[in-house]
Design goal:
There is one protein chain. It contains 11 helices and no strands. It is mainly alpha-helical.
Length: 217
């Protein structure tokens, strides 16, 4: 006698809400943009990776440019928030430099895909907030800290904006290098950043001159 096989009940996939689908598309796109760049990523790939049709992507973001703008903006706000927290936390300026350097390296370590996206150039990023514009925002905050220190040491506070760009650029470019190198450890990298930056700031001359200029006189 043949045994009857009880058919398994059909399981239906739980339909995502609009916000859940949007977050899924952002996560999928973030990974693709990090590995292939803006130009190398297509709407077809985003849709295929998310297992949806292309119209779904267009419905939520209007196209690749729209979803890229969202991804970049989120990363800018995340990193800017981490750096601003350290810059506004007070304390000795040397400690602020140290915490800020570590904050950037922490972000790179924890959000590698996000940092890769930020440091890449794309037509969309130019309009939505690139890494360079973020650096400008951070430099503006550093400028106020340096200006106060310059006044206390009887240095020209008008030079603070220039030195702020130098200091933030030093940290940012070192971060880009460490993104690929990942050696030495981030705490050691941060210590070297502080060593160069702080010792340089500590020894500032009131009226610096180029050696070649002095030799010609």
């Amino acid at each position: 006698m043949m045994c009857e096989v009880t058919p398994k009940p059909k399981t239906s996939r739980v339909r995502m809400t609009g916000s859940q689908r949007r977050e899924q598309l952002v996560d999928v796109s973030r990974a693709l943009f990090a590995s292939k760049g803006f130009e190398g990523t297509s709407v077809e790939e985003i849709a295929a990776r998310a297992k949806v049709s292309k119209p779904v992507v267009y419905e939520h973001f209007g196209g690749k440019e729209g979803i890229y703008a969202v991804v970049v903006d989120r990363e800018v706000q995340r990193l800017l928030g981490m750096l601003t927290e350290q810059l506004s936390s007070g304390g000795h300026p040397k400690l602020i430099v140290e915490r800020s350097a570590l904050a950037l390296l922490d972000y790179i370590e924890e959000n590698t895909d996000g940092f890769r996206i930020l440091v890449r150039d794309s037509p969309v990023a130019q309009a939505t907030g690139t890494f360079s514009s973020l650096i400008g925002d951070v430099a503006s905050q550093v400028e106020h800290i340096l200006a106060a220190q310059f006044r206390a040491r009887r240095l020209d506070p008008a030079a603070a904006p220039m030195y702020a760009q130098m200091l933030v650029g030093l940290i940012a470019l070192t971060g880009q290098w460490w993104l690929e190198a990942r050696h030495p450890a981030k705490t050691e990298v941060a210590a070297h950043i502080v060593n160069l930056a702080w010792n340089g700031l500590s020894g500032l001359e009131r009226s610096p001159r180029l050696t070649t200029t002095l030799e010609k006189r």
